[in-house]
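To assess whether the prediction recovers the assembly geometry, we first specified each molecular entity separately, as shown.
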Amino acid sequence: MSLAEPEDIAKTAIQTGEDSENVLSVRGVTVGFGSKIILENLDLDVRRGEVLGFVGGSGTGKSVLMRAILGLTPKRTGFISVFGYDMSTATQIERRAIERRWGVLFQQGALFSSLTVKQNIQVPMREHLKLSPQLMDELATLKIELVGLPQDSADKLPSELSGGMVKRASLARALALDPDLVFLDEPTSGLDPIGAAAFDSLIANLSSTLGLTVYMVTHDLDSLHSICDRVAVLGKKRVLAIGTLDDMMKNDDSWIKSYFKGERALRRV
Amino acid sequence: MAFLEKNIAPELGLVADGADHQLLALSGDWTVSTIGDAEKELAELEIGKDRLTCIDVSKIEHLDTSGAWLIHKTRGQLEFGGRRVALAGVSPVRQTLFDEIEKHHPPRWKPERNPFTIIGFLETTGRQVVDAGKDGLAMLHILGSLGMVLATVIKYPKRLRSISIAVQFDRSCIGAVPIVALMSFLIGGIISQQGGFYLKQFGADIYVVDLAGILVLREIGVILTAIMVAGRSGSAFTAELGAMRMQEEVDALHVIGLSVTEVLVLPRILALMIALPILTFFADMAALFGSGLIVWIYLDIPPAAFLTQLQAAITLETLTVGLVKAPFMALIIGLIACVEGLKVEGSSESLGRHTTMSVVKAIFLVIVVDGIFAVFFAAIGV
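The predicted structure of the complete assembly is given in tokenized form:
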């Protein structure tokens, strides 16, 4: 199906009152599997143009929250709005438009295994846009280089790539449509420190030049320090604290203290 | 941000202000959503031969990497045509974007084409022949390592994974009983009904019992069961082993020091070799039951007469001829399924291809082997 007239969509945006400040709002969201509640009554706001780092112990539901926002895991109660649209009431057309403006980097890459890297990057372009084959190829190569992959990886299959290269190729696919909002699930885990630093500066660069909003689940303290505008901590089924790194340093919660002032955190200072 | 707002169509205006100088003014949105149109407009634009060209980007509303790339590319093409090109009105933020784009040099674009050539055709054929040879070798390889593992198991019976065999047996035999029985029941009925109508014309309708009994016990029962098992368990084996290869689980077994043949292949093939004769027996019985029911209904041959005629028509040999083929067919199905499964490479497409190949090859070879057995039994006079 094709997109409706953009005017109609713009009208709905006004009706729903698109908040110019927050790209993403989560209100009172509860997610659980069976009798186990993972997230309870969770609130979160992501501001336009910021890089938000998301931390939390293993198994606290960082990925579950991301999946709930993306609509992959059903939520029990609550309200999630992306770009001012309530995701549960958004029409098919609105959802499609929203999905076109976000990019997702999954933890395992989730590249399509039977397509080459170039074809992977072109999937969203083919699906949402009408571009000439030449332009698509050029843009795909551009994204490949932008994320720091060598040009010859364009025609490789995901199974022929190293773990770090899969991450980069997946980022290239997430950036294929120059999204406004990207979700990154542990983008720098499994990368060497040099590669991770390059990844960080790439994200920072894109964020500043394109006004990209970044929602990043990460455990990389260097990323948190170097590129994140704000940090959110997930724990006890909700957002424990959100603010700048300095705010986190001042926080009294024992988990936050041990995370930001632990041995590993202090060693890097 | 331009989210969900109407995209402003990209526009370009060309002004030649004399004296060998022209200004290309760009406006509107130059984003990934609009560059398809922008590219067309650029292609249609007739740019003058003036030597100095200035591209004014200051009126562009929204610009992203795609738009920047198109502008950069246009600039490059103009310069290639012998003009001196400058960008004007670039804000500092956009300058970083252009700086980033300028670092990239995509290779010369070639459209992808696969023209049909004789050489290409010969190459593919050659490759397929070599692959077929490799397939045969791989099967022999697995068969050989299976023999070795069997020898080990006979020497150290504790290394036989009986639980694993039991689980596989449960899946490939007990789970398959209802469908195999139902299918054979129908086939037995169909054979009797079809055969009965023709034999009735000669008044020889009682011989439909001979026809059904011999045909079912010797051939149909075992072949149909083998085909069903190839489709049911063979594909499952291939998919399981293939998925394990994709997730590097097979490699993990290797480095832990376990033999893939011992852990994965042997239990599956053994279970299948036990399962198929049993399933065949069930299939035979179901088919005879179906046959008996149909001759009763259609030809008015009561069950007692059916059984008497059956006793005269078949011997224990008829049944064993069918059953003896079953383990060999199970071996072939299992071997092909495991070989194809272990050949799976990283992609999901490869998994699908090998699962298909596994079933197709197994069914084909089951029929070939049945033919060989027919020749063999004829030669020894059974």
